[in-house]
Design a protein that fits this description.
Largest sheet of chain B: 7 strands, mixed
Order of helices and strands of chain B: HHEHEEEHEEEHEEEEEHEEHHHHH
Strand content of chain A: 5-15%
Largest interface: A-B, 69 and 68 residues
Radius of gyration of chain A: 30 Å
Number of helices of chain A: 17
Order of helices and strands of chain A: HHEHEEEEHEHEHEEHEHHEHEHHHHHHH
Oligomer: heterodimer
Shape of chain B: elongated
Strand content of chain B: 15-25%
Shape of chain A: elongated
Radius of gyration of chain B: 32 Å
Number of helices of chain B: 11
Structural class of chain B: alpha+beta
Number of strands of chain A: 12
Number of strands of chain B: 14
Distance between the termini of chain B: 33 Å
Distance between the termini of chain A: 28 Å
Helix content of chain A: 40-55%
């Protein structure tokens, strides 16, 4: 039966090519517009670590107090604590070790001096972290591994490097055990990562703004980075009227916040215990007089924190909404045209009904026709989505546009949305067509 | 000429669904296009913001050190670099700076008028530079004086030094001390000690271009100092008129001749202001283009939809048209009938659409960082859609007017 309806649909569409083309164009443009913006949206709003994001938490501790006017690192007018930690608080959390894994994190920007002549220095971007960082966020390794807890306490000069840096400096060979010159100091390569560039860079969105076109080039022990005076290139936000003293000593003693922090908590009970622990800690700081205010902490899970940090740019959401509006208009447009097209054939419907076709049959026939338009529109939509994503890559800032990619799931979704949209648009027209009164039609025509 | 509105309404009642769908489509199109136009206009306004910089001649070098240096070593190197740059024949002036207008990111401090004030008066972008900075950027001093070289101190990374003197942009001066009395007055910029205004420049854009900066647009201050940051430093260079290209070739060479152990990123270490502006506003431009394309597609589809549906109606009513013509209606009467019909549907659509457009805008104000839309956009949108409707309906209406009276006698 379906083949028969399909034949009828194709014949009917061929009879009015202009109208058919118009409907396919409408569906195609509508679908392509929303799919293109959806591709960008999907790129920026995806869960960077879906298998684990529910167990990762970001603690925030109010080290500034309620009356402290806050810089961009906190929200003025709200009672939100700063979005990073002071050195004192981060170290207390590391020392107490109340989660199953945890790490303080800050951004570094050392210079790699490749050995041998003719190589120019390479400025790189990386992070100073603790040993538990690697299992915490599941860093994939090609060679070697992360360092040990002992390396952390001893401030061992070890480094984990990215696949790209390994290519640049060691030609892609297994470089574990070889030495790497960072800012004129020797470090031993202990691990080489597989290509790894999670988007957003969830473990330190405060410093990275969420997205970067290159992944982190290296990781090294936090205490080692501090001891060798490797510059912090991330954000430093200070309470009013204070500036940190010179160098790391000043930064470490200041009330400025500059460390990101992430902790893994396995279940609801652990989360509850950790909240309690944070409050107890803040209260102890109140007791010793460091905090002149009651505990004001937050413990957001990773997705909650990304949401709080507005990692998905407003522009992306707005354009997705506008594009969905476009799809809606295209739907209404197609519905109107289908209505016209179907009712024009009232005479034909009357004859079919008189010859015994049921209302359901008419319904099915016209929905099939709508679906055929959907397939045509979808094919056009695929082409336009391709052009759209290509265009977006040239138009948007590279850090965002790189994330918009065409893959089989996007293509399948484009076709699906096109067919669904067309069928949806065809529901009311098909309903009207099925209600045509055969007797009246036959009599008047 | 009397327009027969009543018969049109009666006829439309027989095509309720089609009429409703066109009106709905017009309403949605108006709502979306108004908001899109508003976004486009806002973004274009961003693109054309004044920076205060002599953009035709200025470029910026991002200089990083390849090896660890002490603050003293850096300071000596910066001074040597400056001497080398200023000697170049194609260079008019050069200055070290902590940031530059439209850089995208940069430091800013809250500003208060008294040291113990809890709520900040406002916020200001902070530049640190030497006595050459004003001339290098091409800023126009409208009151007071430039820094003296003895006021320019070596400032290192994260050091708590607050200079006692400051040059501010006119916008900041007026914000803090309305009435043009700012010169000689003091304020606090997250500092424990006051800083006194010794000069006012005409206009100086902030480093930041994000929404967060918007309430503080144009509010900037310059502190005297050589920002000897071990992470790197910006060298701002102003070429002699028309010599930008040769200065941009000569400057890095001169610097490397001074000292090889530095990094000037080949990708973005050397930028002229055309590139800086391009980068600063890439998302604004992208958004404007995207909204423009979506609006154009929307309008085209709505116009095509009106053409399609009206053509169908004309085809369906050939017989009735023939009867009217036979009874004495002129071609013009028929033409006007369809134009009026479309106008009525269009009016219904734009009324709903206008409410929808304002509603969407108000919702976006609460949900996203967006401003209230001026009613002018809605007015322009209404006019555009009504005209679009009339234009779209014209061809089918003309065809209708050519239906011969003979059609009345034919049966289908």
């Amino acid at each position: 039966m379906f083949a028969y309806y399909l034949g009828l649909a194709l014949r009917s569409l061929r009879r009015s090519p202009g109208l058919t083309a118009l409907m396919m164009l409408a569906i195609g443009f509508g679908v392509a517009g929303s799919m293109t913006t959806y591709a960008v949206f999907r790129g920026v709003s995806g869960d960077p670590i879906p298998w684990k994001s529910a167990q990762l938490f970001v603690p925030q501790i109010d080290a500034w107090g309620p009356v402290q006017m806050s810089g961009p690192g906190a929200r003025s007018g709200t009672n939100e604590p700063p979005d990073a930690l002071t050195y004192a608080d981060a170290m207390a959390l590391i020392h107490d070790h109340r989660g199953s894994r945890q790490s303080a994190i800050y951004a570094v920007g050392p210079t790699v001096l490749p050995t041998g002549t003719g190589h120019s220095p390479i400025p790189v971007f990386g992070f100073a972290v603790y040993d538990e960082f690697f299992p915490l966020v599941d860093v994939p390794f090609r060679y070697g591994s992360g360092w040990s807890a002992d390396d952390d306490t001893q401030g061992a000069p070890v480094v984990v490097i990215s696949d790209t840096l390994n290519q640049q400096v060691f030609g892609g060979a297994n470089s574990v055990g070889r030495s790497l010159d960072l800012d004129g100091r020797d470090y031993r390569v202990i691990g080489v990562m597989k290509p790894w560039n999670p988007q957003p860079m969830f473990f330190d969105v405060v410093d990275t703004g969420g997205f970067s076109s290159d992944g982190p080039a290296l990781f090294l022990p936090l205490q080692r980075a501090i001891a060798s005076g490797m510059e912090n290139v991330g954000a430093v936000n200070c309470p009013k009227g204070t500036q940190p003293g010179a160098g790391y000593a000043g930064l470490q003693q200041s009330a400025c916040v500059w460390l990101a922090y992430m902790v893994e908590l396995d279940d609801a009970a652990a989360v509850q215990r950790y909240r309690q622990y944070l409050d107890d800690y803040a209260r102890s700081q109140q007791t010793i007089g460091r905090f002149g205010w009651p505990p004001n902490n937050r413990l957001r899970d990773l997705r909650g924190f990304l949401e709080y940090q507005h990692v998905v740019p407003d522009d992306t959401r707005v354009s997705l909404l506008v594009a969905l509006g476009l799809l809606l208009v295209c739907l209404v447009n197609t519905a109107g045209l289908l209505l016209a097209k179907f009712l024009r054939r009232s005479g034909e419907i009357g004859v079919r009904r008189a010859l015994g076709a049921s209302r359901r049959a008419i319904h099915a026939q016209y929905l099939t026709e709508a679906a055929v338009i959907g397939v045509g529109g979808g094919a056009l939509g695929l082409l336009l989505t391709g052009i759209g994503v290509f265009g977006v890559n040239r138009m948007l800032p590279p850090r965002l546009a790189d994330l918009a990619q065409i893959d089989p799931s996007l293509l399948a979704l484009t076709l699906l949305v096109a067919v669904l949209a067309a069928v949806l648009a065809g529901v009311y027209p098909a309903f009207r067509a099925a209600r045509v009164l055969p007797a009246w039609q036959l009599k008047t025509h | 000429m009397s327009l027969q509105i009543k018969p049109i309404l009666v006829a439309l009642r027989r095509h309720k669904a089609g009429t409703l769908l066109i009106a709905l489509q017009i309403a949605l199109t108006l709502a979306i296009v108004c908001n899109a136009l508003f976004i486009i206009h806002q973004r274009l306004a961003n693109l054309s913001q004044r920076s205060g910089v002599d953009e035709a001649d200025v470029f910026v070098i991002t200089n990083q050190w390849a090896v660890d240096k002490s603050t003293q070593q850096i300071d000596a190197q910066v001074q040597a670099d400056m001497a080398a740059l200023r000697q170049l024949p194609s260079v008019r002036d050069a200055a070290p700076a902590s940031g530059y207008p439209l850089a995208g990111v940069g430091s800013d401090n809250f500003v208060t008028l008294t040291p113990d004030q809890v709520k900040p008066t406002t916020d200001s972008a902070v530049y640190v530079g030497d006595e050459h900075l004003l001339d290098t950027l091409g800023l126009r001093l409208i009151a007071g004086r430039n820094f003296r070289s003895d006021e320019v101190l070596m400032t290192s990374t994260q050091q708590a030094v607050f200079p006692p003197v400051v040059i501010v942009s006119k916008t900041l001066a007026d914000r803090l001390f309305p009435g043009g009395s700012a010169l000689g007055k003091s304020f606090y910029a997250m500092s424990a000690t006051p800083t006194t205004i010794i000069g006012i420049v005409d206009s100086l854009h902030r480093q930041g271009t994000s929404q967060w900066n918007k309430p503080y647009a144009g509010q900037s201050l310059i502190w005297p100092g050589r920002p000897d940051d071990s992470r790197g430093i910006y060298y701002i260079v102003r070429a002699r008129p028309g010599q930008l290209a040769s200065a941009m070739r000569a400057a890095p060479k001169a610097l490397f001749a001074q000292d090889r152990m530095r990094i000037i990123d080949p990708k973005d270490g050397l930028l002229d202001y055309a590139q800086i502006r391009h980068r600063a506003y890439d998302s604004d431009r992208g958004m404007a283009i995207l909204m423009g394309i979506i609006s154009a597609v929307l309008l085209a589809i709505t116009a095509a939809g009106i053409v399609g549906l009206t053509s169908f109606w004309v085809g369906q009513r050939r017989k009735q048209i023939g009867v009217r013509r036979a009874l004495g209606a002129t071609r013009n009467n028929i033409l006007h009938y369809f134009l009026t019909e479309n106008l009525l549907i269009g009016l219904a659509g734009v009324i709903v659409g206008a409410v929808l457009a304002i509603g969407i805008n108000l919702w976006m104000v609460t949900r996203f960082e967006m401003d209230r839309m001026s009613l002018l956009y809605v007015g322009v949108g209404i006019l555009a859609l009504l005209l679009l409707g009339q234009g779209a309906v014209f061809a089918p209406a003309l065809r209708a007017s050519r239906v011969s009276p003979v059609e009345a006698t034919r049966s289908v």
